[in-house]
Each structure stands twice: as structure tokens, then as C-alpha cells.
Amino acid sequence: xxxxxxxxxxxxxxxxxxxxxSTFQAxxxxxxxxxxDGDTVVVQGGFSITGIDxxxxxxxxxxxxxxxxxxxxxxxxxxxTITIGNADDVSTLQVDSTLTLGSGSVIQTTSGFVSDxxxxxxxxxxxxxxxxxxxxxxxxxxxxxxxxxGLLSVASGADLxxxxxxxxxxxxxLSVASGSLATIESVNTFSNTGAIVVNGGSLQVFADLQGSGGxxxxxxxxxxxxxxxxxxGQDIQFLDGTDSLVLDDAADFASTVAGFxxxxxxxxxxxxxxxxxxxxxxxxxxxxxxxxxIPITTVATIQMEGDYTANDFSTTTDASGDLILTVDVxxxxxxxxxxxxxxxxxxxxxxxxxxxxxxxxTGKRRMxxxxxxxxxxxxxxxxxxxxxxxxxxxxxxxxAPNLPARDLLLSPDHAIYAEGVLVPVKYLIxxxxxxxxxxxxxxxxxxxxxxxxxxxxxxxLRTESxxxxxGRGMFANxxxxxxxxxxxxxxxxxxxxxxxxxxxxxxxxRIKAHLAKRAKPARAVRxxxxxxxxxxxx
Length: 538
Description:
This protein is mainly beta.
């Protein structure tokens, strides 16, 4: 059965077309157009489809094995749902010219263990949603050009392959869910000016990542592999300390990395044995080798957005000869520090889950239950980077009379709350009232975790609670393999922190000036002392 229907309205009230090849030209269909086994339906000349009432969204269902919907000329489908998928064979949406999906249109794969395809010599412009469903095997997008101005979603358990012949333009959102895989094959142009959200899934990109203003975010154990170059206009954002970025072409990686924290990793393929340095917001990786006796130096640079120091980064080489860059740092209290609780001040080592501690995060005292208390003994004399773990001593009265009430020992990156911000204590060292304890050779560190990041009172001074970001391996009781040499330093507050993290700026300068005034000889500061301004909330 072959035929052409032109300039007509066809009402399908629960029926199914049984044509082998059918052409709809400038027609309107009301109802569900179902394309069965081996059937091909061609649309052209201003085709449209609605619900049976003539106003609600219409549906085109490619349910048959080897079924095809062919778009023969430039068509715009508004408020249309196209479902692609069967359990036995390939279903295909073939685009010969330009197919534009309006904002209310959806293409969704629905079933099948083999590939379904959006293919052809034409172009697809998506202003609606294209969804690779979990049970649908692999969705292949292989038109000449593909532009995503809407939503392109890969559900948990599904696979998506984007392999246009010429260009993939993402100005909307590409979402990759947990347990799914999205692959962007090598194309002439891959431009990202929108958002790529990888939430627990995997993304492989084998094309040059181009464009300006694009953001790729990683969370919940996401893995992103960039197989080619990445432009300076792109941002890679780590969100929760559980994610991995693999750079197969690290020498041509020019994008900015933000939110990189303890628990995250950046893998530089083939850079095993290289060395890393950090200065002015840039991690530089240098690898020296030789070919036929000729020295060769390969350099990769990674622009890091955040507050780091030269000692915050470390590298290891894995069995494959790849370099793994991490931030192995975490803030803690030293044993003996007294924390204000519902029962009064209690030494941190005596606290346990369920105990209620006093928080002042909102400016008012509130009782919060402890979720977990970590502990770890550190032999400073044997540590490969002792400056990362040697405690900082905050002298009694450094901030105000009896603030702290006793000398307070903190790890270098444990943050103190003042002037409405959190400042790692190492940035407040003045050599007198706040100084590194050079005599310490052994220290036991503890930290207190609440349901969320909060401000505690330690020896009366406002300090942060533990912010979980995959760092429990630093502690002996963390329920994870223990890190051989624990580092208790920097962590990212950007996503879950209760107050801004500052290491420079007007707030930090005011704190330093206040500390300097307090550090003068006692006769100069007797009497009432102005305390630092306290914020009413975080």
C-alpha cells in the first residue's frame, strides 16, 4: 500500500494506518499516528498533528520493527510527542531537510535493547525535549547538524550517542543521569554555550569543546572524559567532592575548573611521573621525557577557581601511567578542644553521635544533634608535608577577652567565623597571638559533623563544623579506607558552606587589623575591647 494524502485532515480515533509507504503533504492528523513493522511514513509541506480534540498535543508512535518517520522538507512540529522504540529492531526518525521541534514537543525513546536513531542528511533544531529513556537501549543522533536549544536528557540506565556529520551546538541543557552514558563523537564543530549536567552518569567527549559561557557540572560520582581540546570559554564545575575529570589532551585544556575539592580527581592521560606546581590560580603539570635522546618537555596548565595554596595539591601515577591530581586537605580540631554543648563545654574527643551541641549559625543559639565525630592520630615527624597538618595555636584572648577562653589548637585550614565570613586560620597567622605550633610532633585531630554545615563554639570562639565532601577516609573511623598520610587543610565551601569562604578582601583585612591591635602589649589593650562584628546569619 503506497499513497499520498495532500491538504487533508485525517482523524484517527484509536485506529492504525496500515500503509507500507505513506506520504502526508500539508495535512493535519488528529489522534495517534502509529507506524508499524517495516512501515515508512513521509511528512512534508507543512504537516501537523494534534490530539483527537484538535487542540491537545498529538502523538506519532514508531512502535514497529524497522519503522521509519521521514521528514522530507523543512517542518516545524509544535506540541507533538514522537515516541521511538520497539523491543526487536531499530526505529528511525529520518530528517532529509530541517526539523524544528517547538517548545512543547517531545521525542522520547520508549523501549528496546538495540539502537534507535535520529538520522539523515538534514538538521534537527530542538526547542523542546529529547529524552533517551532508561529502558530504550541506545539513542543515536546522527543528522548532519544538531542544535539543542531545549532539553536533551539521558535517563538512568540509558545510552546516548551524538554523532552528527558536521556540528553539534548545545545552547540548552544536556542532562546525564546516574548510571547512564552520553558520548559526543568527533565532529567538525562542538560548541557548548549552555549547560551540561552530569549527575552520577558518564560523559565522553571526543570532539574539541568550543564556545563561550558553557558550563559542565559534575556531581554524585560523575565521570567526564574530554578526549580533545577544551576552550578557555568553558567552565568545569565540581559540586560535591565525589567526581572525576579525565583529560586525554591535557596540553590543550584551557577551560577553568571550579569547586575542585577533597574527594575529586583530575586524571591527565599519559602524564605519569610528572610534577605539579601551583601559583596565582594555576596548576602547572610538567613532564620531562626524551625521544631518540632529544629532551622533550610537555606542559599542561589548569586554571583553578578557588582559594588554594601551593601545598594543597598532590599527584600520584596509576598503573596505566596516568597522573591523578587531587586536593588532599581537611580541617579539624585538635584533641582537648572544648565544644559548647547542651550540657556545657565538653572535650571534642568525648563527644559522640546524638549529643547536642550549640550552634550560632543564624546568630541565635540553637541545639543540633551530632551526626558523626571523626578522629585521626597524625605523626607530624613522619608526614611527607608536615606544614599541612601542624596545628595552629590561637592564643587565649586573641580575638577578645576570653575569646578563645583557652589556647585553641586547629588544623591549618580550619575556618574561624568573624565579620560574616569563614577564614581558614592559617591566613590569620601573625606570629604572636596566632602562630604555628612548631613543637608539636604528634597530634590527634577530631571533627564534628552535623546534619549541615554550622558554626560551633570551640573554647567560646566561633568555628566551623565538619562539611562532608568525601573526606572521611582521612579519619580512622570514617568507614572508608584510611588515607596513608592524612592532610587536614582546604575544603570547598562554595556549594554547601554556611558562610562565604574568604582568604583575602576587606573582611579579612579587618580581622587582621583587630588581631594586631589585640596583640599589642597588655597595657595598650586593658579595659574594654571592641569585638569583631558578628553576622546574624549564614
